[in-house]
Every structure is written in C-alpha cells, then in structure tokens.
C-alpha cells in the first residue's frame, strides 16, 4: 500500500507575515483517500540535503469547503516550515500521507451542543476546521473560540474568523487573548493560563455547565494550564480533546501494556509484525523501538514525528509486553486496548506480536 501520495500545490496564500495557507489537490484516484475528518492532519515528507524529514500539518479547511488546505507557520530555523513559507510555489508537488488523527468528535445534525475551542498561535488550524465543520453540520450548535496570540499582527485567519461570525450569526464567539497588545478588557491581555481560564468562567465569558466539549491545541504548557482550568471549572476528562503540535517535555507517565508473557533478560526480541495484510518476524535488539526494528528490516511501518506526538505509528500489541516511554497522542482507553505508539515502545518480553492494521 502506498503511504505517500502526490499532491499538487494549487494555491499559496500568506495569512500573516510568517504563515502560509497551502491549497492542495490529490490526483483523481486519491481523492477518496484524502477525504478528511475535521481536525485531522497531513504528514508530508521531503528530502533536505539527502535527509528525509517528515512533518505534520493540520487541515484548516472545513469538510464542506470543497478544498484541502493546511496552514504552516514559520518556525525560526525550522526546515520544513521555512521551505513552505519561502520556497514552495503553485504547481509544485508535495508528498503526503492520507489524513490522520483523532482530534474530533462525531457530529449529529440534530444536536444542539456548545463547544469551546482554545487555540494558541498555529494551533488554530485544526480548531478552525472543527469549528467550520461543526457550525455547518450542526445548525443548532454554538462555538466559542478562545484564541491566544502574541499580538494583533500574528493572528492567523483573523479575517476568516470575522467572516465566519457573520456567516454563522450568533453561533460563533471569538475571544482574542493577546500576550503583548493591550485590549479594552484587561482580562483579554496576557497569557492563557489556568487562572485566566478560571476568570473567563467566573466573568461569564465561558459557561462550564453549558459546555459539552472543549478542544485545545497549542504549546504544551498552555494546553496543560487550560486543561487544569477546565477541570477546576467542572469539566470531565472525556469532555476535553487535545492536539499537541510539538513536545517540549518528557511526556506522560510510562504506560505498560498488559503482559501475557513474563519478561526475560535476553537483549534480543522477536517482533512479529503484521503490516498491510502480511506478517513477518523481525529479530532486533530491545534497545530499538518497535518502529525502528520494523523499519530496520525494510518494513514500511508508518511514522511522522518520532516523538510520541502524532500517533501515525500506532499499532496494537497482541502478545507480549512493550514499554511505551512517551505518549502524547493516545487516549487512556486506547492504551487499555493494547494500542501503543511504536516509535516510543521498546520490547520487554522476548517475543512481541504487533499489528499495524487494526
Ligand atoms: C499532529 C501535528 C499537527 C501539526 N500541525 C501544524 C499546523 O497546522 N501548522 C503548523 O505551523 N505546525 C504544525 N505542527 C508542527 C509542525 O509539524 C512542525 O513541527 C513545525 O512546522 C516545525 O517544523 P520544521 O521542520 O520547520 O522545524 P525543525 O527543523 O523541526 O526545527 C524545529 C526547531 O528546532 C530547531 N532546530 C532544528 N535543528 C536544530 C539543530 N540541529 N540544532 C539546534 N536546533 C535545531 C529549529 O531552529 C526550530 O526552532 C504540527 C505538529 C503535529 C505533531
Ligand atoms: S511517529 Fe509520531 S507518535 Fe510515533
């Protein structure tokens, strides 16, 4: 199965000085594979001086917009984001895997729910896709966006958000929180911290009891503060959905997959890998992650970030035990079912059976 497909760049639009919105068109045969769910991302690969880099970018378009678009903000000294902002042009071809990710909730046209989205900087991209799709497909639902940026000049999609407020009159509220630029309401200046989230609830800008689901995407410290603020206001864990773009910290606590075998001290493991319908056994050092072990034997096991953030490398452990050292992507219920991030999972038992197809 081809993991990467060619996408034609059909448009590049500067949204702010340091960010572009890239429109992409799959080949006709691939159109179905790129039929995304709101909140999902694409993983691109490109060679930089002979080294293959893979980078993920969230789709910012809504499902009903009839277009595939990602928003890429330039990171200082960053390889792919600088290339996309400075070199990429209309007519070029990019290689990407079909959409992935589970940063969404199921929509129901008859539902009348209240959603809150928190986005920091480029973290707006999946939240924009979610709010566009939700407001279009759940005509009785509302969405409040709390959008954190340094200043007015760095707000991606500012005009689009104003237009959406008019399109979905009375159903979309946008609260801009700016780190440095002063605003009429003091509460809207500074960082979005746990305390600030509490103040937004207490001042009536947000309503905890009326909130069905909260989406958070942005830098990790901001996400953790917001999640703490939401929980303090009474939201339950399963009402909060996260998407982390980059990992600055070592990760959550280590999670272990239920063992069916006792471990041994041997340093070599037999890893039985099912991928794309066929099964092969790989012998590899326990020092290698399951992903690296599979790839060292020329298996095309999927990956993107290799940092436990994106879940592209997810597989299910059917037998044996692995230790997952970092997990920013899988939900607890997935871990309980035996799913692991293979880039972060190291064999503990001498035999491990994993399946990438489940
Ligand atoms: C699921 C997911 C979705 C995402 N969605 C988006 C999105 O919609 N929009 C978006 O803009 N981003 C998104 N990201 C982040 C994106 O994937 C990239 O991480 C980001 O663009 C940086 O990639 P880069 O190649 O430009 O930077 P990199 O080259 O990876 O560099 C990152 C940083 O490391 C520093 N660095 C690099 N090499 C070295 C070195 N040798 N020594 C010291 N420092 C170094 C750079 O200066 C830079 O500060 C997403 C990430 C994930 C996981
Ligand atoms: S490759 Fe991203 S979590 Fe493993």
Question: How does this structure look, described?
Answer:
- This protein is α/β, with parallel strands linked by helices and 358 residues long.
- The chain folds into three domains: 5-96, Beta Barrel (Elongation Factor Tu (Ef-tu), domain 3), CATH 2.40.30.10; 114-243, Nucleotide-binding domain of ferredoxin-NADP reductase (FNR) module (Rossmann fold), CATH 3.40.50; 268-355, Ubiquitin-like (UB roll) (Roll).
- It is 18% helix and 34% strand.
- The protein contains seven helices and 19 strands.
- The chain has helices spanning 79-86, 124-137, 158-167, 194-202, 220-232, 290-296, 332-336; strands spanning 5-16, 19-26, 41-48, 51-58, 68-73, 93-100, 114-120, 142-149, 172-178, 213-218, 240-244, 255-256, 268-275, 278-285, 314-319, 322-324, 339-341, 345-347, 351-355.
- The strands form four sheets. The chain has a six-stranded antiparallel β-sheet with strand order 4-3-6-1-2-5. It has a five-stranded parallel β-sheet with strand order 9-8-7-10-11, sandwiched between helices.
- β1 (5-16) and β2 (19-26) form a beta hairpin.
- The radius of gyration is 21 Å and the shape is globular.
- Bound molecules: flavin-adenine dinucleotide and FE2/S2 (inorganic) cluster.
- Flavin-adenine dinucleotide binds at residues 41, 53, 55-58, 70-73, 75-82, 122, 125, 245-246, 305, 309-310.
- Residues 269-358 form the 2Fe-2S ferredoxin-type domain.
- InterPro entries: 2Fe-2S_ferredoxin-like_sf, 2Fe-2S_ferredoxin-type, 2Fe2S_fd_BS, Beta-grasp_dom_sf, Cbr1-like_FAD-bd_dom, FAD-bd_FR_type, FNR_nucleotide-bd, MRET.
- Keywords: 2Fe-2S, FAD, Flavoprotein, Iron, Iron-sulfur, Metal-binding, Oxidoreductase.
- This is Phenylacetic acid degradation oxidoreductase PaaK.
């Amino acid at each position: 199965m081809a993991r990467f497909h060619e996408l034609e760049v059909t448009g590049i639009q500067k949204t702010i000085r340091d960010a572009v919105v890239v429109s992409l068109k799959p080949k006709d045969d691939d159109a179905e594979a790129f039929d995304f769910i709101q909140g999902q991302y694409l993983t691109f690969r490109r060679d930089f001086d002979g080294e293959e880099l893979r980078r993920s970018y969230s789709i910012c378009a809504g499902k009903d917009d009839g277009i595939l678009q990602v928003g890429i903000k330039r990171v200082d000294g960053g390889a792919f984001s600088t290339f996309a902002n400075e070199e990429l042009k209309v007519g070029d071809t990019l290689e990407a895997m079909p959409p992935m990710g589970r940063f969404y909730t199921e929509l129901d046209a008859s539902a009348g729910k209240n959603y809150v989205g928190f986005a920091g900087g480029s973290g707006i991209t999946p939240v924009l896709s979610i709010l566009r799709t939700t407001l279009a497909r759940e005509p009785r639902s509302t969405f409040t966006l709390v959008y954190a940026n340094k200043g007015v000049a760095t707000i991606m999609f500012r005009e689009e958000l104003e237009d959406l407020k008019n399109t979905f009159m009375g159903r979309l509220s946008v609260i801009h929180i700016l780190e440095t630029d002063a605003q009429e309401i003091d509460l809207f200046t500074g960082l979005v911290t746990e305390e600030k989230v509490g103040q937004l609830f207490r001042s009536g800008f947000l309503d905890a009891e009326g909130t069905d689901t909260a989406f958070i995407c942005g830098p990790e410290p901001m996400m953790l503060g917001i999640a703490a603020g939401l929980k303090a206001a009474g939201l339950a864990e399963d009402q909060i959905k996260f998407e982390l773009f980059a990992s600055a910290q070592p990760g959550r606590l280590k999670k272990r997959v239920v063992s069916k075998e006792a471990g041994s001290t041997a340093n070599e493991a037999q890893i039985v890998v099912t991928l794309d319908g066929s099964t092969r056994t790989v012998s590899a050092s326990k020092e290698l992650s399951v992903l690296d072990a599979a790839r060292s034997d020329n298996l095309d096991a999927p990956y993107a970030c290799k940092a436990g953030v994106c879940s592209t490398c997810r597989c299910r452990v059917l037998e044996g035990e692995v230790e997952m050292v970092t997990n920013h992507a899988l939900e607890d219920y997935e871990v309980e079912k035996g799913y692991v991030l293979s880039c972060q999972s190291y064999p503990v038992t001498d035999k491990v059976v994993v399946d990438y197809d489940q």
